[in-house]
Amino acid sequence: MAIFDTLNAAIKNRDADAYTDLYSDDAVFVRHQTGTEMQKPEFDALIRRMMASDETDMGDRRCIYENDDILVMHSINDYPDGTREAVLMSCLKSDGKIKRVETGATPLSR
């Protein structure tokens, strides 16, 4: 099942419900910058804050690869604190939902 188009539309429309509905209830989000993991409720809150801010631009996403098991995408994101990052996101999928997300982010100058 392809998820990228639905996920990308949710980001463009700032539709946090549509975005987080793509994740399984037991989804895990791994942030390699900090070495931390978030469960879906924490990740849901983060996404809602990001989408609510007019100063957050989650960038145009590119689908690198997607099949029934994995989605890999890339974007350039701008955040309210003035930082900009190139983000590579790997999403493991199970039963048509995202089960595990791992990101790598590279700080960029503006």
Could you please describe the fold and organization of this structure?
This protein is α+β, with helices and mostly antiparallel strands and 110 residues long. It has one domain (3-108): Nuclear Transport Factor 2, Chain: A. The chain is 25% helix and 45% strand. It contains three helices and six strands. It has helices at residues 4-12, 16-20, 40-52; strands spanning 23-31, 36-39, 62-66, 70-78, 84-94, 97-108. The protein has a six-stranded mixed β-sheet. It starts with a helix and ends with a strand. The model has no long low-confidence stretch (mean pLDDT 91).
Count of domains: 1
CATH topology, which one? Nuclear Transport Factor 2, Chain: A
Work out the oligomeric state of the chains in this entry.
single chain
Beta-strand level of the residues, as a percent range? Answer: over 45%
Strand order of the largest sheet: 2-1-6-5-4-3
Going by helix content, strand content and strand pairing, the class is alpha+beta
Q: Using the 3D structure, state the CATH architecture.
A: Roll
CATH class division: Alpha Beta
Distance between the termini: 36 Å
Work out the helicity level.
10-25%
Give the tally of β-strands: 6
Q: State the shape.
A: globular
* Average pLDDT taken over every residue: 91
